[in-house]
Amino acid sequence: MPELPEVEAARRAIEEHCTGKKIAACSVADDLKVIEGVSRSDLEAALFGKTILAALRKGKNLWLRLDSPPFPTFQFGMAGAVYIKGVAVTKYKRSAVTDTDEWPSKHSKVFIELDDGLEFSFTDKRRFARVRLLEDPESVPPISELGPDALLELMPVGDFVESLSKKKTAIKALLLDQSYISGIGNWIADEVLYQAKIHPLQIASSLSKECCKSLHRCIREVIEYAVEVDADSNRFPKEWLFHFRWGKRPGKVNGMKIEFITAAGRTSAYVPELQNLTGNRSEKVLRKKSTNVMSKKNVDAEESPSEKEETYETSKKNETTEDNKGREKNDRISSKGMAKKHVAVAKSSLRKRSKSSQANL
């Protein structure tokens, strides 16, 4: 399913090719499951004639800032995707629409033609995505309930270490909790835990400071790298677990055996040789807790033929007072502020590419 890097790639593509242009035509699918809280005709009317000023993202949610509200928001779910005609937008693993499909795709939920003739659509074959029309997307669920964005707002390492020390939850379940950190899904969680050498069922509060620091570094490095290459998995480092974790098939990564367990209700790949479960709590108990703890959490399910399909559920108000105090530090920022963060990340990316190009000369 699309996670932060894939959604960020879609956001960047829209911002590069569509901003500053007026919507000349719009067609919305007659799909009450995906198009939520607004009729197709009202959504079409709200978009027609508007100019796209910016494409913004938090976690795995994307929205367009137009020259006047309301604004369309896109929650990608399991198979949501943005396609721009004639533009190569990175496809995530198990992409639902191929280049040979008709245009616009029969799975298109929102199709837009811009005043210069460019066309793009938001598609969803599995129908677990959600498209909404909101006056202020950041002030209402699901975006208002998201934790800090894993790319733009990752908490400082000291705060991260302190936060984990108070969490009695299995670490993978915590990483998948979108109200704690937004944007991390199943493959990223497996990847960062593998690289940090942490078992998915390890209770967060039992981790040493060094393990917590290592995990923080791996989250930052994996997400920044995936975003840097526009989520093109063919360009991910060959030693990443990503290339070997799909389909529950027996295999090895860097010569070490991969095993699969259920953690936080998700099929989880890990390497026992590196990721040891430590402490007095039994794996059986931890597994039971980790599969139940996410039942009311703000989480996206990974697309898998062997797993139950789930929709995105917003976080309930079951956080402790201590958790709420910590989250106050990460109060929501305005669209203007979010746009500045996107610009800063883009500039950083350009600097890295420039240095890399010079080094290769």
Structure, briefly:
With 361 residues, the protein is an alpha+beta fold. Among the domains are: 4-134, N-terminal domain of MutM-like DNA repair proteins, CATH 3.20.190.10; 157-270, Helicase, Ruva Protein, domain 3 (Orthogonal Bundle). The chain contains nine helices and eleven strands.
Structure in words:
The protein has helices spanning 4-18, 40-47, 157-164, 171-176, 186-196, 209-228, 283-292, 321-328, 335-359, and strands at 23-28, 52-58, 61-66, 71-75, 81-84, 108-114, 119-123, 130-134, 251-253, 256-263, 266-270. The longest helix has 25 residues, at 335-359. The strands form three sheets. The chain has a four-stranded antiparallel beta sheet with strand order 1-6-7-5. Strands 2-3-4-8 form a four-stranded antiparallel beta sheet. It has 361 residues and is of the alpha+beta class. The radius of gyration is 20 Å and the shape is globular. The protein has nine helices and eleven strands. Among the domains are: 4-134, N-terminal domain of MutM-like DNA repair proteins (Alpha-Beta Barrel), CATH 3.20.190.10; 157-270, Helicase, Ruva Protein, domain 3, CATH 1.10.8. Keywords: DNA damage, DNA repair, DNA-binding, Glycosidase, Hydrolase, Lyase, Multifunctional enzyme. Belongs to the FPG family. Residues 297-334 have a biased composition (Basic and acidic residues).
What is the number of helices? Answer: 9
Report low-confidence residues grouped into runs of 5 or more: 289-297, 299-334, 356-361
Order of SSEs:
HEHEEEEEEEHHHHEEEHHH
- Report how far the terminal alpha carbons are from each other: 37 Å
Structural class label: alpha+beta
What characteristic shape results from the CA principal axes? Answer: globular
Q: Main sheet, how many strands, which sense, barrel? A: 4 strands, antiparallel
- Within CATH, the superfamily of one domain carries the name MutM-like, N-terminal
